[in-house]
Write a structure and sequence with these properties.
about 450 residues, alpha/beta, nine-stranded parallel beta sheet, four-stranded mixed beta sheet, 17 helices, 17 strands, binds guanine, binds zinc ion
């Protein structure tokens, strides 16, 4: 859909967190009768509807009252080839990889299958309100290309990369470091910085990557400015022991990545459930961000994430759904899981609605180096948004009828809203998803 050339003024209650609530007390901004002015795909301003309208009387209003506007969600850790293994409960990481995830990932060699899954995967993200994501691609270059093409066609902003590995998975998922270098280069040439796409160098984890493979990753990052880097770190106790055996020279898991210059501000490492104090200090000093994946950590029994230790050490943290180790595509649900697990974690952080909104939006944008582009509604940013309106007969609609405070309303949205409440999603002001019920409106 083509937005109106003179701009649009969206009218609805709106929330955003232009500041970090872990550092500042009034991070949440909300307007009960909000106005979000979009021009040429950017946020021109946001505030009280009447003051925005009075300042821009020529801009037509789109009346969205009855729902809520939030910045589009940013998922910082998700696996494209794992859509169809969601729900594989009852196993721990290494067992789950061997019996659930990797056999399915091997199917990505079939290109028509990969194209089908790519379309379904991208649709699942946007229909849950995700507008930006850092995605693990497939071990196969054509399947990874299918993911980029599907995201591009849908208008979704993603960073992604071919997953590279040369040991301990399944032979059909391995490639030599030379082949990984060649294929990654071709994908970088084709997709990096094309529209809303970014390439992310993606060794699966230290366990499945030889030193030569990690060196290839280092070389790719050196040779191409603006790439991201993603991998896994300190997720599971058995995995950590294996990494120690495979890299006897390394002081700890993080030291393996450090040796190849891979722990740096463009890096996002998933999980970090079991860090030492030294690793936290080094993550903070290097600027590496951690993708916290609470649902996956619980589902795979990996452990309780030490969020307070990360915050105290000033390690950058955001949230990831970790499909398919996690439990689905919903970043609202992931925020709620972060809250719930911190409630029961020893020394857990009591998260409020502002923390959850920040973790699911601006923190993710910052982790991906997109803090100036997306994640909140400050003027000049890309107009990336999700419009939520709960179904009339839903528990969330009933809660909101009581006219709660903005913080209570936002907490109720995190607790109760799912894909059924996502009515419209926009990236750079253009509609990338509209629910069937909204179409009929
Ligand atoms: N570590 C290596 N690969 C994976 C994966 O696919 N999922 C999770 N949760 N951890 C991993
Ligand atoms: Zn993962």
């Amino acid at each position: 859909m083509i937005p109106s050339p003179g701009g649009e003024l969206l009218r609805a209650p709106l929330f955003h967190t232009p500041r970090n609530p872990f550092r500042e007390s009034s991070a949440l901004e909300s307007y009960a009768d909000g106005g979000l002015l979009i021009r040429a795909g950017r946020v021109a301003t946001c505030g009280d509807y009447t003051s925005v309208r009075d300042a821009y009387p020529e801009v037509p209003t789109v009346d969205l009252r009855g729902g809520f506007l939030l910045p589009g969600f940013v998922d910082t850790h998700i696996h494209f080839p794992q859509l169809r293994v969601l729900g594989g409960l009852g196993r721990s990481l290494l067992d789950w990889l061997e019996h659930c995830a990797l056999p399915e990932e091997a199917r990505m060699a079939d290109h028509s299958h990969a194209c089908r899954v790519a379309r379904a995967f991208v649709h699942a993200m946007v229909s849950h309100g995700t507008t930006t994501a850092l995605v693990f691609g497939a071990h196969f270059a054509p399947a990874t290309a299918a993911l980029f093409e599907a995201a591009d066609a849908a208008g979704l902003r993603i960073a992604a990369g071919q997953v590279v590995s040369d040991r301990l998975l399944r032979p059909e998922l391995h490639q030599t470091p030379q082949r990984a270098y060649r294929e990654s280069n071709l994908l970088i040439e084709r997709f990096h910085r094309r529209g809303r796409l970014t390439y992310a160098v993606t060794p699966r984890f230290a366990m499945s990557a030889s030193e030569a493979m990690l060196e290839v990753c280092q070389t790719l990052l050196r040779e191409h400015p603006g790439l991201l880097f993603q991998t896994h770190l300190n997720e599971n106790v058995q995995e950590i022991e294996q990494v120690a055996r495979l890299f006897p020279w390394a002081a700890d898991y993080l030291a393996v990545y450090e040796r190849f210059g891979l722990s740096q501000p463009n890096a996002v490492m998933a999980h970090d459930v079991h860090p030492t104090a030294s690793q936290l200090d080094r993550l903070a000093a290097s600027g590496t961000a951690i993708a916290h994946c609470p649902s996956s950590n619980a589902a795979l029994g990996s452990g309780l994430f030490p969020l307070k230790r990360h915050i105290d050490a000033r390690v950058r943290c955001a949230l990831g759904t970790d499909v398919g180790g996690g439990i689905g595509f919903g970043m609202l649900k992931e925020g709620l899981q972060a809250y719930l697990l911190q409630r029961v974690a020893p020394g857990g952080v009591l998260l409020d609605a502002a923390h959850l909104l920040y973790l699911t939006t601006l923190a993710g944008a910052e982790a991906l180096g997109l803090g100036d582009e997306t994640g909140d509604f400050r003027a000049g940013k890309s107009a990336d948004l999700v419009y939520l309106r709960p179904p009339a007969d839903s528990p969330l609609a009933a809660v909101l009828e009581r006219d709660p405070s903005p913080e209570q309303a936002l907490a109720a949205i995190f607790t109760l809203a799912g894909a059924e409440s996502v009515r419209e999603v926009r990236v750079e002001g253009s509609i990338v998803y509209r629910s069937a019920s909204t179409e009929k409106r």
